[in-house]
Amino acid sequence: MRLFIALNLPKRERQRIERASGPLRDEGRPVKWVDSDSYHVTLKFLGQVRADRLERIREAMAKVAGATRSFEVDLGGFGAFPTIRRPDTIWLGVKASPELRCLKQDLEWALGDCGFEAETRAFHPHVTLGRADAGGGAGDFRGLDDVVAGMEFDGSVAVRSVDLMRSRISKAGAQYSVEFSARLATS
């Protein structure tokens, strides 16, 4: 099964993000927009995982979560990877607070003990809003930087758990389900 570890967002915040990102959707650009029910912050992509490895993953997540106090993360700022002029992914930013960075690093170490390779790329937390159509032309995203510059969003979300997510890919897009949830320590 295809798995990743994520922070899921509350329904109210997902709806706020969807409303705020409306101007991007209204542009009519060649983008496959993510359904707001699927908005999340990926902490660690695990890839294809055999069922017999699930227990060790759950144990590692529970250990890290139990040693991490709940905290808040700030959301804001729209952008794209690799660039706003030639995007692959359009996103809403998530502030990489010290607490979030520590949680991410602790998960990397704990999952390293379970045989998963550590991520070598820099951590840029975000909520994926859409993925650009690879067949789009060079001019398809002209002016997108101006649209994004005129958009605002500020939010804050309490991080109280980390979720092991299962991803099922279909023609309709990715469908996610929570396989396991590990609660963070309370203050």
How is the secondary structure organized here?
Blueprint: E1 2-8, H1 11-20, H2 22-25, E2 31-33, E3 40-48, H3 54-66, E4 71-82, E5 87-94, H4 98-112, E6 126-132, H5 144-149, E7 154-159, E8 161-170, E9 173-183
Antiparallel strand pairs: 1-3, 1-8, 2-6, 4-5, 4-7, 5-6, 8-9
Shape: globular
- Structural Rg: 17 Å
- Quote the average pLDDT: 93
- End-to-end separation in angstroms reads 34 Å
**Share in helix:** 25-40%
**Which sequence of SSEs, written as H and E, runs from N to C?**
EHHEEHEEHEHEEE
Briefly note the CATH topology name: Cyclic Phosphodiesterase, Chain: A
**Would you state the CATH class?**
Alpha Beta
Which structural class do you get from the secondary structure elements? Answer: alpha+beta
Main sheet: which strands, in order across? 2-6-5-4-7
Architecture, according to CATH?
A: Alpha-Beta Complex
Number of strands: 9
| H/I helix tally | 5
Number of domains: 1
Can you tell me about this structure?
The protein is 26% helix and 39% strand. With 187 residues, it is of the alpha+beta class. The chain has a single domain, classed as Cyclic phosphodiesterase (Cyclic Phosphodiesterase, Chain: A, Alpha-Beta Complex), CATH 3.90.1140. The strands form two sheets. It has a five-stranded antiparallel β-sheet. The mean pLDDT is 93.
Compact description:
With 187 residues, this protein is of the alpha+beta class. It is 26% helix and 39% strand.
Task: Using brief descriptors, characterize the structure shown.
four-stranded antiparallel beta sheet, 5 helices, Cyclic Phosphodiesterase, Chain: A, five-stranded antiparallel beta sheet, alpha+beta, 39% strand
